[in-house]
Every structure is written in structure tokens, then in C-alpha cells.
Design brief:
The protein is mainly α. Helix content is 67%, strand content 6%. A two-stranded antiparallel ribbon has the order 1-2. β1 (8-12) and β2 form a beta hairpin. The radius of gyration is 20 Å and the shape is globular. The two termini are 15 Å apart.
Length: 163
């Protein structure tokens, strides 16, 4: 097994911080567990999207439209302003496109989960959920979070690092 204290992770002012030391800092600050939960959650989502890739496809035209809508909404229509924004975010355009693509796929997953739950709701008319976009979005997010918690609770987690 690799010693995490010898794995370089980040350099700060010419000092190389090991992965082990970075994890220790996070643990002492109380931020390691939330970070690990986030990683597990992302893994489960990505794993589901990969396993059901035919179900959650996104066309290039949809990605391009989402980017256009985002740039208009954020007033980043000028190419140089948009490039400056990307630089401030610390990402390249390719990464931004990947984020948009993944966001659209996750939205499709949320919609699919919510649709399957609509039929199981007691005393709720599914047509009522369709009437309000805000209610629909909140419901999709709620169902998605419940699904994620259930998946995380059922996952067999083994942490390969020592505190």
C-alpha cells in the first residue's frame, strides 16, 4: 500500500504538501467526512449515469443552447468577458462544456426518478405536480436527494486511508 504522506498533492510557496497531510488537515478541520460524502455521492451518480447511458443522452445542440442561455443570463455574451470568467473559475472551455453536459444528464436522472415516484405518492394527483415548474423542480431535487441517501446508505464503503 502506498504511503499517502509521500504522495505529493499540492505545492504552496515551494512547499510540497502530501496527500496524507492534506487529508489530516481536512480531518482536523471537520471537513474530511463531508468531502468524502460528496465524493461517494458523485461516484454513485456518475456510476448510474454510465450504467444507464442510453437513457440519459444529451444532444450537442442542447448543450450549445444551454451555454448560450447561460452566457446571456450571466451577461457574458462578449467573448473576452466569457474567457475572463472561465479564467476566474479556473477552468477551460472544454471543462465548462463537460459540466453543462453532466448537469443536463443529472437533470434527466432527476426527472426519471421523480416520474417513477409520482405514481407512488399517496393523495397527490400527478397532474398537480406538472402545473408548477417550481414545485416540479423542488420535487425532482427532493426525490434525487432521497435516492442518493438510500444509495449511499446501501453502499459498501471501505476507506483506504488511515487517520
Amino acid at each position: 500500500m502506498t504511503d499517502l504522506n509521500t504522495l505529493p498533492f499540492i505545492t504552496i510557496d515551494n512547499y510540497t504538501l502530501s496527500l496524507g497531510r492534506a487529508l489530516q488537515y481536512l480531518q482536523v478541520a471537520g471537513k474530511l467526512t463531508p468531502l468524502l460524502q460528496e465524493i461517494v455521492g458523485l461516484h454513485l451518480v456518475f456510476e448510474t449515469l454510465e450504467a444507464r447511458s442510453d437513457e440519459f443522452t444529451v444532444e450537442n445542440a442542447e448543450i450549445e443552447q444551454k451555454i448560450i442561455d447561460f452566457r446571456i443570463q450571466e451577461q457574458l455574451t462578449d467573448p473576452q468577458q466569457f474567457q475572463n470568467w472561465l479564467t476566474q473559475q479556473g477552468i477551460e472551455y472544454k471543462t465548462f462544456v463537460q459540466r453543462v453536459w453532466m448537469t443536463l444528464r443529472i437533470e434527466r436522472l432527476k426527472a426519471a426518478l421523480a416520474t417513477s415516484q409520482n405514481n407512488n405518492l399517496p393523495n397527490v394527483n400527478p397532474a398537480d405536480l406538472e402545473q408548477s415548474e417550481i414545485i416540479q423542480k423542488k420535487f425532482r431535487e427532493y426525490v434525487f436527494q432521497q435516492w442518493l441517501v438510500e444509495r449511499m446508505n446501501a453502499a459498501d464503503l471501505k476507506l483506504a486511508i488511515a487517520a
